Amino acid sequence: MKRRYTFHPQDYAVGENEKYYADMAQRGWILEKRGATFSRFRRSEPQKLKYRIELSSPAYFDDDQQLPDEQVALYEESGWKYVTSAGLVHIFCAPENSSVPEFYNDPRQQAATVKALKRSYVRGCLVIMLLLTFHAVIDAAMMGDVGEWLVEFGAEVRIAWVRATALVLAWFSLMAVLFYDLLRGVISTQLLYRRLRSGRPIDHSPKRPAVYRVIRWVLGSLTVLFALLFVIQLCGVKTAEMPDEADGPYLLLRDMGWTGERTINYLGQPSEVETARSLAARQWHTYECVSDGAESEVWMYQDVYQMRSPARAMALAPVLMRDATFAHGPESFSAVSVPGIDAAWRAGMEFIAVRGDTVWYITYSDPGLYSPEEELLGDPLAALAHILNTEETSGE
To answer: Is 238-395 CATH 3.40.1000?
Structure first.
């Protein structure tokens, strides 16, 4: 293997970067190129080298992050060899035992070079906060109420947590890494600036591994782990044609008396079942459409979640009400009593039921929905209760 790519310390860890590249050279890996996250090394005989980092300091709104050619030439005339650059970071090296002079005789002269790096981290924090604030303000304005937006956002996160737990964890872990890096960058560059201003030079070979690197490694590892778990979940998602007999805890239209032929709706969607499993729940998502014999169709969507406990199942019900397709939140749902079901609610063509550790969210359309509500009261719910009670009786 002639090339190797590794994660390097963050830009604000100047001394650690210098030591990291020197340690790699002693192991026979010589720095070739530094990127935003990775450094590329080439295989060589072990060498004793020392590395120094010079930070460029462009003015506000100046996109040129390169060092002046005269400055690079001056360092090379002094015995330093230019290696590579990445953003504000410019790297030079020299033999470890050589007598090449340091870039600055007085550390206080070097302090000014840290300002641009600190400014980049402050700007990153401000941009993220402004984007999040802008997004929140726009959403809240559309809903007319900040409190309503927070409730809706919370419901969306809860649904995402149930359906794709690992993805939510990966997203929050990634955000934690990003915010940690930016905040740590602001703090570290400020401390480095004060150190240099006080006349103390950069520690080019820190002895102890920084705690921040351990924290960042943990956060980064968690992000990768959760992302892999989400990929595994995606690989486990299966979509199949809806069977004649239900192979999960979901309803069929024939359970409610519809025996017509299954058909494809006007969008070209066939009757099918999708099964999935997240860290929070087993899931069945179904769609079925049949002809009612009168040149129209009857259809039903279902989202079924088998949670880890009855308490979690019951807690999910109001979240599903908040996230309902047609209803306008929990206030639109009315509780209905159905023997054999722990709790049930209805809002027009939408139904929610809880039995044990399982929750059903059903959207069901048939001509009876346009009749007075009493004529259809609990129709899918009654069918569901009948099936569950029959299974319970046969199990005994």
So the answer is: yes
